[in-house]
Design brief:
Elements: H1 2-19, E1 21-39, E2 44-45, H2 52-55, E3 60-71, E4 74-84, E5 88-101, E6 104-119, E7 123-139, E8 144-152, E9 162-177
Antiparallel strand pairs: 1-2, 1-3, 1-9, 3-4, 4-5, 5-6, 6-7, 7-8, 8-9
């Protein structure tokens, strides 16, 4: 039985590759604003707390490996996205849609629910956390883009009504491995 399950997993991993291209995004995200908004139930706090005023700016190296399907200027895909803080890295499954209006690229993705982390601590966990991410970038050459984006973390267990968010600048290399070459 274990051999059948293992064979099934291999088949499920290989079949999408026959019909899709492999994509690798390597990026540096630089937060412009990191904040928290809260809904107290009786009142909504519209003002956000900006942590960068106190701690300064830092960068987040990020990566995404995915299978991508192209439909004209629209690309869709599924993969694994993550951030690394050198001493700790976290990855989660993601689905995305992207519109390439050369030279402008509009990208939206949503991911979460399961997380793989390693560094100081190593393991996997599941959560009800879903992470929406949206960015608009200017494509300078076929693979390099500069832009601005926003990401939120609504629904963190134990923090109901509180939504951390980030508005960031991004520089990314988006490399598509052509299946026909």
């Amino acid at each position: 039985m274990k051999k059948i399950v293992f064979f099934g997993i291999i088949i499920l991993m290989v079949i999408p590759g026959v019909f899709a291209q492999v994509r690798l995004d390597l990026a540096i995200d630089i937060p412009v604003t990191i904040g928290i908004t809260a809904d107290t139930g009786d009142d909504t706090i519209d003002e956000s707390i900006n942590f960068l005023k106190d701690i300064g700016t830092f960068t987040f190296p990020t990566a995404m490996a995915a299978y991508q399907w192209s439909f004209g200027p629209v690309n869709t895909g599924v993969g694994l996205k993550g951030y690394s803080m050198i001493i700790e890295s976290v990855f989660w499954p993601v689905i995305y849609a992207e519109v390439d209006l050369s030279p402008i690229v509009i990208h939206a993705n949503i991911g979460g629910l399961g997380f793989l982390y390693f560094g100081l601590g190593t393991g996997t966990t599941t959560s009800s956390l879903i992470i929406p991410d949206f960015h608009i970038a200017y494509k300078f050459v076929k693979t390099f883009r500069l832009g601005i984006g926003a990401m939120a973390l609504p629904g963190i267990d134990g923090l109901e009504g509180i939504t951390p968010y980030s508005i960031y600048l991004t520089g990314r290399f988006s490399i598509l491995f052509d299946k026909d070459k």
